[in-house]
Design goal:
The chain has helices spanning 2-9, 14-28, 36-39, 42-63, 70-81, 88-96. Helix content is 60%, strand content 0%. The protein is mainly α. The protein starts with a helix and ends in a 20-residue tail after the last helix.
């Protein structure tokens, strides 16, 4: 993190910073973040977010033993997206599409209102 901050704080042209940011996003797993501007609104947007989430979460979910809380998914996802943050509500709605889209993941709500 310090190395990234140092590189971004060095004086560079705006184009160089954009290229570097995209490079870092690629290394995390998100090359072109889904946005409302690029994928519309409503169900279409949430399905696109769900696909992006599923791709990004494959490694972390495996490391976590196959179960992650929605709050952890939200934090990891927004950290990977960098500056194009997504609301908690959009993350929950995207998670609801995972099973429907056959990504091998699903959102489960336990009777104690704990979402996994």
């Amino acid at each position: 993190a310090e190395r990234i901050a140092q590189r971004l704080s060095d004086k560079k042209t705006e184009g160089d910073e954009t290229v570097e940011l995209k490079s870092h996003l690629l290394s995390i797993g998100i090359s072109n973040p889904v946005t409302r501007e690029t994928h519309g609104t409503g169900t279409s947007y949430h399905k696109s977010l769900g696909s992006e989430l599923a791709h990004m979460l494959q490694g972390p979910l495996k490391e976590a033993g196959g179960v992650m809380s929605v709050s952890e998914v939200y934090c990891r996802y927004n950290r990977a997206r960098g500056i194009q943050l997504v609301s908690p509500e959009d993350v929950v709605n995207a998670c609801k599409t995972l099973n429907v889209q056959n990504h091998g993941m699903e959102l489960k709500k336990f009777h104690l209102a704990f979402w996994l």
